[in-house]
Design a protein that fits this description.
Layout (H helix, E strand, L loop, with lengths): L20 H22 L10 H6 L6 H18 L11 H11 L2 H13 L5 E8 L2 E8 L14 E7 L6 H4 L3 H8 L5 H13 L1
Antiparallel strand pairs: 1-2, 1-3
Helix pairs in contact: 1-3, 4-8
The structure holds manganese (II) ion.
The site of manganese (II) ion has 7 residues, from helix 1.
């Protein structure tokens, strides 16, 4: 059993005009595919190749850098596609909306802090909304690391991840990462984030 590129749960142009079709095509079909291909190469012939990706991520300190980078890339992007969607964005819903207000004061405050986490991540990486000890926190990770990894500085269960690698926005926004981050808020699928939140609370 090899790892496989999951199908995008919507069309490549479904996030237009916020995230453009060509970026989505290359991001999914080339970048994510490369993480999957290289993860399979790194684990070829090893019993770990049949583990769920989450199990590998949680114990990533036991693995070489190729698994950390490509396994992280596979896990992160699989998550990323599902927390975005067409006809999405707007205000959060459900219990996660309440938790955002409790933890950050308001959605506007959350947005400012989450955007800052993405904008200030130097080089390539991710901004995350996580559940840690039952509470929401905002954090960021370098490269393809994520808060589920045992080596993460701030650990927790990711419920909303935002890719801030240049490949996520450079074709449309060039060096203007904050512009891309603003667009990202228009495509957040809060239904998925709410489901992720409920699952994270269950542990
Ligand atoms: Mn990416």
């Amino acid at each position: 059993m090899a790892f496989e590129l999951p199908a995008l749960p919507y069309a490549y142009d479904a996030l237009e005009p916020h995230i453009d079709k060509l970026t989505m095509e290359i991001h999914h079909n080339k970048h994510h595919q490369a993480y999957v291909t290289n993860l399979n190469k790194a684990l070829e012939g090893k019993p770990e190749a049949s583990l769920p990706i989450e199990e590998i991520i949680k114990h990533i300190s036991k693995y070489p850098a190729a698994v950390r980078n490509n396994g992280g890339g596979h896990f992160n992007h699989t998550h990323f596609w599902t927390v975005m969607g067409p006809n999405a964005g707007g205000d959060p819903i459900g219990d996660v909306a309440k938790a955002i207000n409790t933890s950050f004061g308001s959605y506007a405050e959350f947005k400012t802090k989450f955007a800052a986490a993405g904008a200030t991540r130097f080089g390539s990486g991710w901004a995350w909304l996580i559940v840690a000890d039952g509470k929401l926190e905002i954090t960021s990770t370098p490269n393809q690391d994520n808060p589920l990894m045992d080596i993460a500085e701030v650990k927790g269960t990711p419920i909303l991840g935002m890719d801030v690698w240049e490949h996520a926005y450079y074709l449309k926004h060039q060096n203007r990462r904050p512009e891309y981050i603003e667009s990202f808020f228009h495509v957040i699928n809060w239904h998925t984030v709410e489901t992720n939140y409920q699952n994270a609370l269950k542990g």
